Amino acid sequence: MTEHGASGYRFRGVNPELGVVCGNCDAYNPMGTVRCECGHDLVLYREAVVSVRPPPHVASLVGTLAPAPVVIPAPPALPRRDARREDTLPPSATMQTRSSAPISPEASIGPMSERRSGLRPQAPEVLPRPVDRAVKSGPRIEVIEGPPSQRAKGQADSSAAEPGAEQKWGHDTTGKIPLRAPRTPAATGQRGGTKGRSKEELMDQARNYVCRSCSTPVPSGHKFCGRCGAAVPPDILSLREEYYGSLQIPGRAKLILIRAEGDAAMEGLSFALNAQEHVVGRQGHLTFPEDRFVSPKHANLYYRDGTLVVRDEGSLNGVYVRVRGSVDVQAGDMFLAGEEVFRIDATPKATDHPEADGTYFWSSPKRPSPFRISQVLQGGATGNVVCAKETGVAIGREGGDMNYPSDVYMSATHAKVEADPAGKLTLTDLGSRNGTYVRLRAERDLAHGDYIFIGKKILRVEVTG
After folding, report:
1. DSSP state letter for 366
2. Longest dimension (CA), the chain
3. Could you tell me if 250 and 268 are in contact, meaning their C-beta atoms sit under 8 angstroms apart?
4. What is the mean pLDDT of the chain?
5. Which residues pair with 343 in a beta bridge?
6. For 399-424, how does the pLDDT look when each residue is reduced to its tens digit (9 = 90+)?
7. Contact, 276 vs 269, CB < 8 A?
């Protein structure tokens, strides 16, 4: 059958392929041959008890596995001619499955030097085919035949394994130690897992507040985190909303500069009143250092019960607020119309008594008058003075009781001061373009749209609704 050459064995009349060398006569036999021509058995079948037990360090992690032994029955053994070649497997041996790898004829037969020295090449180990049926009481060993890169894998059907969980295996070189899949909410279907849950249920975490300490979702209405016990902030419990900016908060105000004497570039600037108090003057929070008519600490704008209030801080020239319609005034009050400053004075008492020698002072006849209006000039001097008649005193550029045609900021009929029969005085704006301003005697609440006059600056109040 064979002929030895310089390069080893070559076959005569037989196509070279994988085979088995008989351990008795060194004859080559094709794969699948059960008995050699000399009568020697080529495959040894013997019942082997396979027991799969994990190492101690693995058993401590996955639990003690005590599967029942798997008995692999062997086909009836053929009679042996050589009892010396009887190979046995110890009962406690652990079977390792492997795929059939190609074996070259030279590797199977061995070199000629080994034959001459009396050494016989050992026949390759052939493992029996596994049982097709699954054994529920013990591990199932599966043999995968194919390329050498595929290994035999085993899976264990244990009652402790999770249903539907993928079996994990231990050391990659043995492939025999099954590791139990970890218990996860997704695998067990417990609360918090995603198995079998609808899309609405999966969005529960996004609907709830997430604890800032442990990032655990806290259901609405809970005061404490169920995992770490951290308190839920009050703004989350009350669902309090925050505004994008402080000027959106209702009641917060800002000032718009309408008139800046000598510096037109500043007109239109806004000042946000976000603090509790805001001092206006040449020094303070809102400063106008170039305005020589503004005191160092002129006025204070502050919040009281959510309402903006203005207060004169003892300034020399005072704080003026624009009149809406009509306001009550009294003797001693001052007001602005155009660029003119006026003061309301009471009618002086009669002093026409004779001198010591009995002579009277000669003067114009006196007419009855409830009050009079005096123009206040720069520096404090008195200008025009008009005593009120029956209808009061009208101020404007023409056609009034006090006319100022050269004042371009005054309307034709600008304002009027009247007295009722009871002596009550009223200041009324007659629809002028630039308005009429009255000086504050005390604190004054400000509303949206009010105008205040400080020094030579006019500021409009805007309050968030």
Report:
1. P
2. 180
3. no
4. 75
5. 334, 374
6. 899 999 999 999 999 999 999 989 89
7. no
The whole-number average pLDDT for the span 281-308 is 94
What are the backbone angles phi and psi of residue 30, rounded to the nearest 5°?
Answer: -65, 160
Q: How many CB atoms lie within 10 A of CB 270?
A: 13
Q: Contact 20/29 with Cβ under 8 angstroms?
A: yes
Taking alpha carbons only, the member of 326, 348, 309 closest to residue 429 is: 326
First and final CA of the chain: distance in angstroms?
A: 110
Which residue from 244, 288, 273, 402 is spatially nearest to 337, judged by alpha carbons?
Answer: 402
Cβ atoms 58, 52 nearer than 8 A: no
The answer to whether the beta carbons of residues 69 and 138 sit under 8 Å apart is: yes
Dihedral in degrees, nearest 10, Cα atoms 16, 17, 18, 22 = -40
C-alpha 305/C-alpha 66 separation (Å) is 79
Q: What is the spatial distance between Cα 138 and Cα 245, in angstroms, rounded to a whole number?
A: 70
Give yes or no for a contact between 123 and 21, defined as CB atoms under 8 angstroms apart: yes
pLDDT in tens, 374-394: 999 998 999 999 999 887 999
Would you give the DSSP letter of residue 161?
S
- What is the length of the chain? 465
Residue 302 has which token pair? 């502050």
State the amino acid at position 364 in one-letter form. Answer: S
Alpha-carbon torsion angle 132, 134, 135, 137, nearest 10? 160
| Residue (of 382, 386, 402, 279) closest to 338 by Cα position | 402
Burial string for 228-260 (b: 16+ CB within 10 Å, else e) reads: eeeebeeebeeeeeeeeeebeeeebbbbebebb
For residue 18 the two structure tokens come to: 């994988």
The CA distance from 123 to 111, in Å, is: 14
Q: What are phi and psi of 371, to 5 degrees?
A: -160, 180
Residue 359, CA distances (Å) to 18, 58, 348, 351 in order: 161, 134, 21, 13
Quote the DSSP letter at residue 392. Answer: B
Residue by residue, DSSP assigns 78-109 as PPPS-GGG-----TTPPP---PPPP--HHHHH
What's the rounded Cα separation, in Å, for the pair 67 and 177? Answer: 12
